Amino acid sequence: MSLSPERAPGRDCPVCPRLVQFREANRRAEPKWHNAPVPSFGPADALLLIVGLAPGLKGANRTGRPFTGDFAGDLLYPTLKKFGLAEGEYGRSPEDGFRLIGCRVSNAVRCVPPENKPTPSEIAGCRSFLIDEIAGLPRLKAILALGDIAHASVVKALGESPAKCVFKHGNLHALKGGVLLADSYHCSRYNTNTGRLTTAMFEAVVGELSRQLA
Length: 214
Fold this sequence. Notes:
By secondary structure, the protein is of the alpha/beta class. The protein is built from 7 helices and 7 strands, in the order αβααβββαβαββαα. Helices cover 35% and strands 13% of the residues.
């Protein structure tokens, strides 16, 4: 499920000119790919929202499902299954039948950026969709931010004070309205290859959140 048509970015969303140009170039190069804003994945009654940075060029930008088809999904989705937040077998394809339970996955920026690096104006330009995403989850109890950019965008989307919600892997922040914000390093290949994030570290964060939501 995804945002309603009124609140989701359209296939040809014009908000960010640089991302529009990159999207059009990718459509010419790979016409069979998704090459459009990537909708969220998971049920609309989710208790947990996971927010990443942006779609990967050959991952979600290709497949049309967040974290699907790249290394980050290879860590994220089996971890969610381990803690009862998903079922089925993750197969790197939106047709794999993998299903999220009580959680939903989205991104701070919905379109793939060049070199996986959105600009501050692009992050700000896409924040209205994140605000609507959060507002559209009536049972939301917790948000997991993957990386400091996702963390900062969530904090701003909720009108919280950045000075009081400092990003640090493993941090938990009690926000206004009773929503819990958890921080983790992004489950990217770079972070895992360098040892900045291990499987055990990531599982510890997700495991604690699952206990908080029980």
